[in-house]
Design a protein that fits this description.
Distance between the termini: 6 Å
Helix content: under 10%
Number of helices: 0
Radius of gyration: 16 Å
Strand order of the largest sheet: 2-5-6-10-9-8-7
Number of domains: 1
Structural class: mainly beta
Shape: globular
Number of strands: 15
CATH architecture: Beta Complex
Strand content: 35-45%
């Protein structure tokens, strides 16, 4: 299946069609902040990002940067990436802003406890689904989730598509 025409990036933007396959891992050029239910869940200047053809960047934050919430293993959740290996998922448990029961966001985050050698740097790092949280910020800009709900990339004004994930993009 042929993908739609690549959008030409403006100054300061990247085209996801210039990202490599297999994907590349690199430090994020921007700080990352994740918020939910009024709490800053994680904040870091040491995030990594995975860049893969047709996908907006997926950001991985050091697990130690998660300070405003607790993580608990998600029941029955797991997936396999041909590049990174076997993923594990965690639920995010955030204190209630009203003092009531904690807020649980099921399968909000995932990571690779034993990633492939090429992605060894993401051990002890977590990626978050932007669609399941109140705000995932890249350099102060609120990211939109990658279309479709399956992938975990974050769309910002820094990247142009078209992006894999929406209807009709499975074979890209």
């Amino acid at each position: 299946m042929r993908h739609p025409e690549r959008i030409e990036p403006a100054a300061g933007q990247e085209s996801v069609w210039d990202f490599p396959r297999p994907p590349r891992l690199e430090p994020s050029p921007h700080p990352i902040r994740i918020v939910h239910a009024g709490a800053v869940v994680a904040e870091t200047d040491a995030a990594l990002r995975v860049l893969e053809t047709s996908h907006p960047p997926t950001y991985y934050v050091p697990a130690a940067a998660v300070t405003g919430a607790e993580l608990r293993p998600a029941r029955g959740a797991g997936s396999f990436c041909e590049w990174k290996g076997q993923a594990r998922y965690w639920d995010l448990v955030v204190p209630s802003p009203t003092g009531g029961d904690p807020i649980v966001v099921e399968q909000a985050t995932w990571g690779y406890p034993e990633p492939s050698e090429r992605f060894a740097a993401i051990v002890d790092h977590l990626a978050f689904y932007a669609a399941r949280l109140d705000g995932c910020f890249v350099g102060g800009e609120k990211a939109e989730p990658q279309p479709g709900g399956f992938y975990g990339g974050w769309v910002t004004s820094h990247v142009v598509g078209p992006f894999k994930g929406g209807p009709g993009s499975w074979g890209w």
